[in-house]
Design a protein that fits this description.
This protein has 138 residues and is mostly helical. The protein contains seven helices and two strands.
Length: 138
């Protein structure tokens, strides 16, 4: 089969033939940042820690009005502001974005490979047939 590449899932059918499914780099979805969800998490974290918008804004170097816009999801923020907020609240960017970002292509390929790892060759072939049929009709 040769060298395995990123974004490729390798399956073996009943007769032992190898099949590779390429995961396209083109997005399969339309993506928009959910600033409201991020803002809500930031607001909830601020309230849980007992800070005012003014205190947080001063600590991270933004205006209280801008902090309000962020928490209401009305405005995005620069990466450095996001990092300052995460550091101030002791949270990760992953936590803030977890409900917002779709999985990337490599993550999808890894999840598919993990689901099929313990399946029989017959089951893997059946999944291949299903995937092939679905992609043909997309």
């Amino acid at each position: 089969m040769g060298r395995k590449k990123k974004g490729i899932v390798h399956l073996q059918n009943v007769s032992g033939e190898q099949h590779a499914i390429g995961i396209s780099s083109a997005p399969l979805y339309s993506f928009q940042v959910d600033y409201a969800a991020i803002g809500k998490k930031l607001r909830d974290q601020r309230k849980q820690l007992g800070y005012t918008q003014e205190q947080v804004a001063e600590a991270v170097g933004i205006t209280p009005a801008f902090m309000g816009h962020i928490e209401r999801g009305e405005r995005g923020m620069a990466l450095d502001t996001l990092l300052h907020l995460c550091n101030f609240y002791h949270i990760t960017m992953d936590y803030l974005w977890s409900d917002t970002l779709p999985p990337d292509d490599q993550q999808i390929a890894t999840q598919i490979a993990a689901m099929l790892k313990d399946k029989t060759p017959e089951q893997q072939a059946a999944v291949m047939d299903i995937v092939r049929t679905v992609t043909i009709h997309m």
